[in-house]
Amino acid sequence: MKRSFPADSLLTAFFTTLGLAVMGYHPGIEDDGVYLSAVKSNLNPALYPHDAVFFRLQLQATFFDSWVAGFVRLTGVPVAWNELILQVASIAIIVFASFGIARELFAEARAQWAGVAMVAAMFTLPVAGTGLYLVDQHLHPRNLATALILMAVYRILAGRRWQAIPLLVVSLMVHPIMAAMGISFCLFLTLTMLDPAPAWLRSWTGTGKGSFAVAFAPLGWVFDSPTPLWRKALATRTYFFLERWTWYEWLGAIAPLLLFCLLWRIALRRGQAMLGRFGLAVLLYGIFQFVVAVFILKTPALIRLAPLQPMRFLHLIYFFMTLVGGCLAGKYLLEASLWRWALFLLAINGSMFLAQRFQFAHSEHLELPGVVSANSWLEAFTWVRQNTPTDAYFALDPDYLALPGEDYHSFRALAERSQLADNIKDTAVVTQVPVLAPAWSRQVEAQRGWAHFKPEEFERLKVEFGVNWVLVSYPQPAGVDCKWHNDSLSVCQIR
């Protein structure tokens, strides 16, 4: 089929823009409390003199923060704008790669673009019980790694297997865990794409029985011995424990494998060899990684491997399920009907947009650089960043990320000041870096009962840790020297 390059380029740009508009943009939330802080620290080493270990140690396995900081220096553009540019670039590559994969699997243009439309709308689809979305609402190394992995898959399907290697190598430098999953899938895909197919594969495709090869599952990790404090942090994350998954999370883990098994069998019967082989690759990858994940997570002696989060293999499967599901809808349901396409786009984009507005109800949907936020927490973070010394050391409610109206924005990343460890995001960091557990536990325990703190408790934090500023609710406790406040929060100095 002859392709129209201008039309394809315009549609790629359209779905990139639509995907960003639906998912929203929220720099500094959740994991970005680690990554954005690391980028800013790289650019200005004077930042975070008291607490940099809570993001630096975790990022030793990736070049992400240094690459982003290098990009900022190269362009001379402020970090906020560079983060947005790289986020848009990641989404654009994901959309382009999704279109490339769809083009290799389906001949009909309407099927290809329906698949892309489905992926773009479902960027914030939760992945079973893994704690992941298909794409994060901020610049994340997982977004970049996913874009590179999908491009590698596209090149393999297009018969350019060697072009996948540098893409996977770069993804490994950006996000090792997700890249390991991508390499595993690409090995299975390569095996299923061999022509003639290996004997074991012919056995599978002919009878549905047989064995499958072992995929690459690197365990390149320096492990410390588990400690009680580390186990305490680990216990706060349900996705590390399969027995804590709900029935619908288990359904979300198993159902996609059954669907790809069905796709493989039906596609082969209909003579759709490429689609059938792709479905088989997803099935084999899923079975293998599921066995590995259960073995790791249910073997007590392997507890230190839990932070590798082996169930995150589902991330790629959900991507492919969304893409192929959209393609099938375009081919068999939407066809060339304008009103069906309009209803399809309205339903998938409208529902996901509303879900995001509900999740970030107290924040702008697109938190773009230079836009003044009406969120009282972000207003306070901005004042702190602009009016307190770089070496200021703050304490605030250790559970502040989950408080009403906060919307999981990181104080460390957005106020650009050191803080005592929190009980949410820093806890997740401790699961990855056990050596931080004693400091994390000591600091969180010292802040227990924060809502009832009086001046003497703040003085205790200053004596014990060196804290000299606090962010508290307004009106503040009597006797505290506060420099600024809004309707909800006060910024106070401990002298």
Short recap of the structure:
58% of the residues lie in helices and 4% in strands. The chain has 495 residues and is mainly alpha-helical.
Radius of gyration: 24 Å
Record the strand order, biggest sheet.
Answer: 2-1-3-5-4
In angstroms, what separates the terminal alpha carbons? 74 Å
* Residues in helices, as a percent range: 55-70%
SSE sequence, one letter per element: HHHHHHHHHHHHHHHHEHEHHHEEE
Number of strands: 5
Q: What proportion strand?
A: under 5%
Give start-end ranges of low-pLDDT stretches: 205-223
Number of structurally distinct domains = 2
Overall geometry comes to globular
Quaternary state of the chains = single chain
How would you characterize the largest beta sheet? 5 strands, mixed
Helical run tally: 20
Structural class, from secondary structure content?
A: mainly alpha
Give the averaged pLDDT, no decimals. Answer: 88
Topology, pairings included?
Blueprint: H1 5-23, H2 32-43, H3 53-56, H4 64-75, H5 79-105, H6 109-121, H7 141-157, H8 161-174, H9 176-193, H10 199-207, H11 228-234, H12 247-269, H13 273-297, H14 314-334, H15 338-359, H16 376-387, E1 393-396, H17 411-415, E2 418-419, H18 425-432, H19 437-446, H20 455-465, E3 469-473, E4 481-485, E5 489-493
Parallel strand pairs: 1-2, 1-3
Antiparallel strand pairs: 3-5, 4-5
Written account of the structure:
The protein is mainly alpha-helical and 495 residues long. It folds into two domains: 5-30 and 77-335, no CATH class; 376-493. The chain is 58% helix and 4% strand. The chain has 20 helices and five strands. It has a five-stranded mixed beta sheet with strand order 2-1-3-5-4, covered by helices on one side. It is globular.
